[in-house]
């Protein structure tokens, strides 16, 4: 199967009407990576194009022409030579959603937490080149050892969902909640609110939850983390992803009326004090632009076309989609579900296209396709092109560390507390 990037490039040669008609969610995706890094504060073309990047979003400077002008073969030779020279001093990590042109150079492929753990286990690696997005590189830096440096090949590879909850809006929300609920524990010793942040959040927010008695969760362990939180608190403030929060809490039996949405721009998040009095889970108004694209119409279509199809979606998808699917779970869950199928099966998957295509390649005995027929990769991860990877690696060979992601220890120490609570809460 050809890679997502080559398919996008091929489609661009025969465009029909707008991006949706041509099978690509945004025609701008066909642009060269260098055109995307123009200094504009955007997430680049694609699924996240309508989200506004915050003013302090890191920007990628222009890299030398020799990388921008190099063809695929030259970049391949440069990357392989640099990797060879750096040997065990280097580890390259690739997220499941990363494009094949980059993932082919990864020493490990996984989700953000698996990759951070890989970094931990490679003690000899001085340089951890993280081919994912900004919050993932921050987590790797928080968990890494003092002698290790984490590098993000393109600084503009952020995450629109993570950026939807910034520290000052969360602090403001917290103050309002303290005014409303007070700070005293109840008779059972449970505090009024426990903050829970999804792994897909900035280090500053992980630090916030760490210093306020809270915890981090992943899409694999969200249920056990919420159980941990309810043992210690009367309610939970869950950010940034409303869908993961809602889907997890609903599966635990919490009624929707007790899960108000918190819109950061509005007083009391757009709720009345009475509504908040009943709340069990306050859901921050955040979402993943990639997973928000999935809908129940796509599931109906898949079921009509392929009777018996097994529909598996990621819990970042909207609740209606999760309810209509056969099962929902993390990238790890999806991968294991497919690996466990002993008979040839048709799978319709609701997650990022690069991962779905890779699974289809890996398991040719099954029919595996993405529920969304329009090719739309995670546009922020897409910003990492082999040219950037060649550049950071050759700089390392020359003894220069560029694009280092370094979380100040004042932030990292509390973030580590929140991550360690998560590890202890894991079943
Ligand atoms: S897939 Fe969604 S949540 Fe994941 S990095 Fe991309 S924008 Fe962020």
TrEMBL record:
Main location (coarse class): cytoplasm
Record key words, sorted: 4Fe-4S, Cytoplasm, Iron, Iron-sulfur, Metal-binding, Pyridine nucleotide biosynthesis, Transferase
Record-level Gene Ontology MF annotations: 4 iron, 4 sulfur cluster binding; metal ion binding; quinolinate synthetase A activity
Subcellular location: Cytoplasm
Biological role: Catalyzes the condensation of iminoaspartate with dihydroxyacetone phosphate to form quinolinate.
Family: Belongs to the quinolinate synthase family. Type 3 subfamily.
Entry protein name: Quinolinate synthase
Protein source organism: Arthrobacter rhombi
């Amino acid at each position: 199967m050809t890679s997502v990037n080559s398919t996008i490039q091929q489609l661009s040669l025969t465009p029909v009407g707008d991006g949706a008609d041509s099978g690509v969610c945004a025609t701008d995706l066909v642009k060269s990576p260098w055109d995307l890094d123009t200094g504009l504060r955007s997430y680049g073309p694609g699924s996240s194009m309508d989200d506004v990047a915050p003013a302090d979003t890191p920007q990628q400077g222009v890299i030398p022409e020799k990388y921008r002008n190099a063809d695929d073969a030259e970049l391949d030779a440069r990357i392989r030579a640099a990797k060879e020279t750096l040997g065990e001093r280097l580890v390259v990590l690739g997220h499941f959603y990363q494009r094949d042109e980059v993932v082919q150079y990864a020493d490990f492929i996984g989700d953000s937490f698996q990759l951070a753990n890989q970094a931990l286990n490679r003690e000899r690696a001085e340089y951890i080149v993280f081919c994912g997005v900004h919050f993932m590189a921050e987590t790797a830096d928080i968990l890494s050892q003092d002698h290790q440096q984490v590098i993000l090949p393109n600084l503009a590879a952020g995450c629109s969902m993570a950026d939807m909850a910034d520290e000052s809006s969360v602090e403001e929300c917290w103050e309002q909640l303290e005014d409303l609920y007070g700070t005293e524990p109840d008779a059972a010793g449970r505090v009024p609110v426990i903050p829970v942040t999804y792994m897909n959040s900035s280090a500053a927010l992980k630090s916030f939850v760490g210093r306020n008695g809270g915890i981090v969760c992943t899409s694999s362990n969200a249920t056990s983390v919420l159980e941990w939180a309810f043992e210690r608190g009367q309610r939970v403030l869950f950010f940034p992803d409303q869908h993961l929060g809602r889907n997890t809490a609903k599966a635990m039996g919490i009624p929707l009326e007790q899960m108000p949405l918190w819109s950061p721009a509005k007083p009391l998040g757009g709720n009345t004090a009475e509504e908040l009095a009943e709340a069990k889970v306050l859901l921050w108004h955040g979402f993943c632009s990639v997973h928000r694209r999935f809908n129940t119409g796509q599931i109906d279509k898949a079921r009509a076309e392929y009777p018996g199809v097994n529909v598996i979606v990621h819990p970042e998808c909207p609740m209606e989609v999760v309810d209509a699917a056969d099962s929902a779970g993390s990238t790890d869950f999806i991968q294991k579900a497919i690996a466990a199928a002993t008979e040839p099966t048709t799978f319709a998957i609701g997650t990022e296209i690069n991962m779905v295509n890779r699974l289809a390649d890996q398991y040719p005995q099954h029919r595996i396709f993405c529920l969304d027929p329009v090719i739309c990769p995670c546009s922020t991860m897409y910003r990492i092109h082999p040219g950037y990877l060649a550049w950071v690696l050759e700089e390392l060979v020359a003894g220069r560390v560029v694009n280092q992601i370094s979380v100040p220890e004042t932030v990292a120490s509390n973030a580590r507390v929140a991550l360690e609570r998560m590890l202890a809460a894991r079943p």
